[in-house]
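Hi team,

As requested, here is the filled-out complex form for the 4AD run. I kept the field names the same as last time so the parser does not choke. Let me know if anything looks off before we queue the next batch.

— J.
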Amino acid sequence: MKQTYINELQDKISEEVTLKGWLYNSRSSGKLVFPQLRDGTGIVQCVVFKGNVSEEVFEVAKSAGQESSIIVHGTVKEDARSPIGVEIDVTDLEVVQNSTDYPISPKEHGTEFLMDNRHLWIRSKKQHAVLRVRHTIIKAVRDFFDSNGFILADTPIFTPAACEGTTTLFEVDYFGDDKAYLTQSGQLYNEATAAAFGKSYAFGPTFRAEKSKTRRHLTEFWMVEPEVAYANYEDMMDLGEDMIIHVVKAVLEERREDLETLERDISVLENIQKPFPRLHYDKCVEILQEGFEKGELENKFEWGGDFGSPDETYLSAQFDQPIFVHHFPTAIKGFYFEIDSERPECALGIDLLAPEGYGEIIGGGERAMDLEYLEKQIENHNLPKEDFEWYLDLRRYGSVPHAGFGMGIERCVAWMCGIEHVRETIPFPRMLYRLKP
Ligand code: 4AD
Ligand code: MG
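And here is what came back:
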């Protein structure tokens, strides 16, 4: 018999079905066993009545261990008490492999233990819900760019040079002679593809040797990076805003149940709307200094500094929408930023800070257009000029104002799901102290 998936059961009331999956949980009482079957699309309660099955099947159903792989045959019955509206009256049940002593029992476990067992932990309800939200976010992001005239142009993972500073580079041996690094961002290559296609984007894994242990940092994370020719930093705020609105809508439409499983306050997401406040860095400094004077911040923030996570949290707490910050000090930004011609100490960078303390989820801005300025910047940042010659060609041959940004998928997922730490937003997180499983 053809396999039916649990998320199709509501349309199959009174029909005979075959379900294939794993035993999520089970209890029994006298002549009844209630195995809960999961198959990746949902969980359904099955009812095995001793009178309806052979002696052997009843015993197998009763003794199968948690996460045993099982195949169930039965009839779909409407049931008002079931979260999915149906249960299965079992006529036959086969154990494909009996699992004993499954390490993740329904009792509480510490995070380290669960992380060590990540390959199994992803089967549990909440983790499952987070990863489904991730799927929807990625799909929504791609749909957004695909339907707005962007060409997907993937960028290399092995790169000869840094994009986001040399302190977080992962070096790899590239056949002995040449040094290679794992990419920190596809941006520099996106600038080339934008000059070829007008609007392009890259979506792939990026790497940062982050030596800090925070709830927002992974060493390997996925970033979506659009780049647009003939665009400025304000256009990037418009684009980022529209992208976020599109993503929030998709998550609310497709993943409401998962958000409920995660006990997410859905009203916060429903409230997200355009326009997002846009704050000049100067204004942020003012807000942060007031916060310090009121005793709401521990340290006094000074112009020129980079926001720490308490600063970001404080800033976003003043608003109920994500906020854009623009015009960061040139001195704390990457070599490639365009500067404000009237105030060269300010770079035309933008960040989007998510609400509820989730911090920066988008970083980007306008790129320097002028060849000589960039040559000087490369020198000032102590970058090896020969590795950037190809990049400088983009300024030699048809340089235009252009801009782009990058959004870290994991931070976006953490925010949408309302979960504390980015380590649960990717199937197998890579962090300072975690390379396994
Ligand atoms: O602000 P970042 O460093 O910007 C860039 O890499 C630009 N070159 C992107 C561009 O303009 N094309 O990183 C962009 C985003 C951050 O806002 C954050 O969401 C995410 O990438 N991010 C991280 N996410 C998880 N772990 C880390 N270690 C991250 N570092 C950055
Ligand atoms: Mg940034």
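Two things worth flagging: The pocket of 4AD (ligand 1) is lined by residues 163-164, 185, 187, 208, 210, 217-218, 221, 223, 225, 360-364, 404-408, 410-411, 422 (CB under 6 Å). The chain has a mean pLDDT of 96.

Thanks,
J.
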